[in-house]
Amino acid sequence: MLLRLMHLWIFVRHALMGYVDDFLFIQDRECTLYSASLLLCFTSIFGVPLSWAKLQLGSCITWIGWTFNFTSGSFHIPQEKVDKLFNLIKEVTRSRRVTSALLHKLVGLLQWFCQLYRSCKPWLAALFSDLHRHLASQYSISQGLWPSLANYLDDDLRFTSVPPGTQVPLGGKLLEARRTELKTKLDLCKVRTSNRIWMRVTNPKSDRRSLSPASRTFLSFWKEWCQRPQPYTALSVPLRLQVEAFADARADGDLIGIGGFIAFPSQKCIWFSQAWQLSDLSVLGLELRRPAHKDIACYETLAQIALVHVYRSVFPSGRVAVRLPSFSDNASTEALGAKLYTSKWPLGAFAQKLSLISAASGIELDISHIAGEKNDDADLLSRWNQTDALPDKWKIEDRVDCSLKFIWFFRKEVLVWPSHFSLPAGTQERHVSDDDL
Predict the structure, then answer these.
(1) What are the backbone dihedrals phi and psi of residue 114, each rounded to the nearest 5 degrees, phi first?
(2) Using an 8 Å Cβ cutoff, are 288 and 298 in contact?
(3) Structural domain boundaries of the chain?
(4) Which position among 109, 127, 396, 405 has the lowest Cβ density within 10 Å, counted as fewest Cβ atoms?
């Protein structure tokens, strides 16, 4: 109601926005001073309480935690927020152990940072995993009680009652015994019972946490980032491309295929189709399951990564951030494209690659859902055996190579497209020196 009344009070062209109890007023420079005075009179007349410390007037202000510069049309993170993150990271990484309260504080601040730097969100999964992983301690039990230990455990190997003669914490999870990893009750019979048995059990009441190597690597990146000049982000949203992109994946036994295309308003299509055996993907260093359909969301995401490469190959020198509308018939991939976060692995690795190629190319995916029966063209390309004839609209000269070299082990480089184009013989190689910069 207050915001609506203020809109009526200021009848000259303006923008007035509110976030909870923080308001932002934007107007032409010539009349901003007068309108701001009218707003102060309005709040005084109706007794609206104001925080005078938060009142700001100018082309560069700080609002809801961000510093906005309306002259340059950009915003960035204030230095005090950067310093706060830097000090938190130093405190968290100082020792091998950290309290859950301190880790909660750091994760919350990084989530706020990732609202601006969305491409970093997939790596938050490692910190969340550490936050919810309780430390484990060693407990011993006599070999005579081991055969009946299953009576004290639930199906998730959590202790529902304390075995006699032990100090095992109630609710703790049994991880291993005698260096034998335990996942189900059936694994208990794998443990030798010749002597007293030592078990590793988590303590749910402990407020201490341990950082994984992945989390420490992620935090070292942010620590270095905090010591560099802060980048500015444009207030304008990325340009939505007037194209349509479709992608699909297949996973049958050990056979994996991806295919898709981008359709331009001129009716021209550029497309891709790749196929691998599951053994070919061992170079990724991931534990992909067999049969391949168990990880179909990973391969659907890989097909979306290929779409980014396909568009980048046509416009390799683009520098303006754009949004590429694409379609997928997999709900997990659609959700991953929207959130750029998952706690599941190896799907998280594909989310990281999607973020990396988007950040490197400036191409942001806007994934929408499409029914499987309506995604028949992309489905055809994903199932193509690389030898049969394709319909006439899929011209071989419009095909883009989406092998793992380009969509997984990608790096910035100079490419010539179409591939059959050759530079003039008289073209001289020229090296860029520091004087040219």
Answers:
(1) -75, -10
(2) yes
(3) 2-58, 79-132+209-234, 136-205, 239-407
(4) 396
Asked if the bond preceding 424 is cis, omega within 30° of 0, the reply is: no
Beta partners for residue 199, in sequence order? 139, 177
Kindly give the interhelix angle for 347-361 and 296-314, rounded to the nearest 10 degrees: 10
Residue 219's pLDDT is what? 94
What is the pLDDT, as a whole number, of residue 416? 66
Q: What is the pLDDT of residues 174-230, one digit of tens each?
A: 999 988 999 999 999 989 888 889 999 998 888 889 999 999 999 999 999 999 988
Tell me the H-state helices in 204-261.
Answer: 213-226
pLDDT value of position 437: 35
**CATH, domain 239-407, list 3.40.50.10490, 3.40.50.300, 3.30.420.10, 3.65.10.10:** 3.30.420.10
3-state helix, strand, coil in the chain (%, to 5): 40, 20, 40
In order of 34, 256, 319, the CA distances from 296 in angstroms are 60, 9, 33
Residue 81 is encoded by which pair of tokens? 């927020």
Q: What is the CA radius of gyration of the chain?
A: 28
CB 129 within 8 A of CB 246: no
Burial code (b: 16+ CB inside 10 Å, e: under 16) for 100-111 equals eeebeebbebbe
Residues lower than pLDDT 50 in the chain: 429-437
Q: How many CA atoms lie within 13 A of 170 on its CB side?
A: 4
pLDDT of residue 426: 59
pLDDT (tens digit per residue) in 80-110: 999 999 999 999 999 888 999 999 999 999 9
What's the pLDDT at 309? 93
